[in-house]
Amino acid sequence: MKSMTDRFERHRQAWTPEETRKLHMLVAKGMSLKAIAKSLTRSEESTKNKAKQDKLKILKAR
Questions:
Q1: What is the pTM of this model?
Q2: Rounded distance, CA 28 to CA 57, Å?
Q3: How many angstroms separate the CA atoms of 37 and 50, rounded?
């Protein structure tokens, strides 16, 4: 089993402008929070908080 520290190497690291751009793009494509977080190698919590901060609406998974 992987420990929490292995899962998110990016833990507590600032978002880069590139990551922010990618987040905006993926949200615009209508991807789920889980899929976005995975492609950014960020936790869902971190991704959700950043999206909220940038006033983005992530669609709820159906």
A1: 0.77
A2: 9
A3: 11
